[in-house]
Amino acid sequence: VWAAWHVLEPGEMKDGWHLRLLCAELEKVTQGTTKNLLLNLPPRHGKSLIVSVFWPVWEWISRPQEQYLCVSYDLSLTQDLARRARDLIKSDWFQSRWGRRFVLSDDQDAKGHYTNDKLGARISITVRGGATGKGGTRIIGDDLHNTKAIERDAEREGVIYWWGNVIKSRKNN
User: Fold this and answer.
1) How many angstroms from the chain centroid is the CA of residue 15?
2) Can you tell me whether residue 172 is helix, strand or coil?
3) Is there a contact between 64 and 118 (Cβ–Cβ < 8 Å)?
4) Which end of the chain is more exposed for a tag (fewer CB within 10 A), N or C?
């Protein structure tokens, strides 16, 4: 995260204990000691960039076969995070270090769905939308609730039901 920050963000990265803790917890997921991880951070604290962009790219360095199903309430958000991860992978900085580990496929290189030559994939979907036939070895939910609608009980409960009953069945194992 610290070494690659400049590729995606202008200016110097502001270090913080929460960022180091976040990365340490994600490493536990990678190692298999943590099976499920729920993170709550205030807006603008780096959660989406670290969890949804840097972490999947970092995992692909040693585990290019991982398949990510990334979910948000808003398709443009999850597609933008996917695009940023793809931009990092295609960057000269990344390619000069790990470019031989895997190659992004030419025939599946859309903004919200791309694959690599080691059977890895990143698929972007929305809450309550388009999960049929899709899955992943990793499922990342980032901003599952629309902040404008979360106060409505039916909206909140609908998202919780969908996550617990639909998306759980999308995990590859």
Assistant:
1) 21
2) coil
3) yes
4) C
